[in-house]
């Protein structure tokens, strides 16, 4: 049997249920993420524990990246009585506006241990480069 020792957690859970905190396709919940640059890639890591890989959609339209995922309740056998349910279910979504300096044609997505990792290469045109300076062969005369 499971003992509950924090009455405030239960009150918070009930408040979230009453306020409609679980996500739907029309009003999804947000998902926590980290974003950072690693070498020549921009990396976005999104937490999606308990979500199956086939329930994750990643779309890019122009420079708008959209990630949607759905966590469905686990099937339960007949006669099971739920004692405690704190894990959020429903739809999760996140939209990010990507800079023009990212190569959205070559995004890679990996899902491991409940973390979706997106790797977006930095576009060649955005990488630092040297510009050669040529010296003029003939001197010019200034006339005034």
Keywords:
four-stranded antiparallel β-sheet, single chain, three-stranded antiparallel β-sheet, 1 helix, 144 residues, 8% helix, mainly beta
Blueprint (SSEs and pairs):
Elements: H1 7-18, E1 33-38, E2 41-47, E3 56-61, E4 64-71, E5 90-97, E6 108-112, E7 115-121
Antiparallel strand pairs: 1-2, 2-7, 3-4, 4-5, 6-7
What does this structure look like?
8% of the residues lie in helices and 33% in strands. The chain has 144 residues and is mainly beta. The strands form 2 sheets. A 4-stranded antiparallel β-sheet has the order 1-2-7-6, with no helix packed on it.
State the shape.
rod-shaped
Q: Could you give the count of β-strands?
A: 7
| Terminal-residue CA separation | 97 Å
What is the tally of helical segments?
1
Q: In terms of structural class, how would the helical and strand content be classed?
A: mainly beta
Taking strands numbered 1, 2, ... along the chain, how are they ordered across the largest sheet?
1-2-7-6
Q: Helix-strand pattern, N to C? A: HEEEEEEE
The level of helicity is under 10%
Major beta sheet summary: 4 strands, antiparallel
User: Radius of gyration in whole Å, from Cα?
Assistant: 25 Å
Strand content: 25-35%
Mean pLDDT across residues: 81
Low-pLDDT residue spans: none
């Amino acid at each position: 049997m499971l003992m509950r020792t924090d009455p405030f957690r239960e009150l918070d859970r009930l408040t979230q249920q009453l306020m409609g905190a679980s996500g739907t396709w029309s009003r999804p919940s947000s998902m926590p993420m980290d974003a950072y640059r690693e070498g020549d890639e921009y990396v976005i890591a999104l937490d999606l524990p308990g979500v199956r890989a086939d329930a994750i959609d990643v779309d890019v339209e122009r420079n708008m990246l959209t990630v949607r995922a759905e966590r469905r309740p686990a099937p339960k056998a007949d006669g099971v009585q739920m004692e405690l349910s704190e894990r959020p279910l429903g739809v999760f979504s996140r939209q990010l506006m990507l800079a023009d300096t990212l190569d959205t044609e070559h995004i890679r997505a990996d899902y491991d241990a409940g973390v979706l990792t997106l790797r977006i290469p930095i576009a060649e045109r955005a990488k630092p480069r040297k510009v050669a300076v040529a010296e003029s062969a003939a001197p010019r005369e200034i006339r005034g």
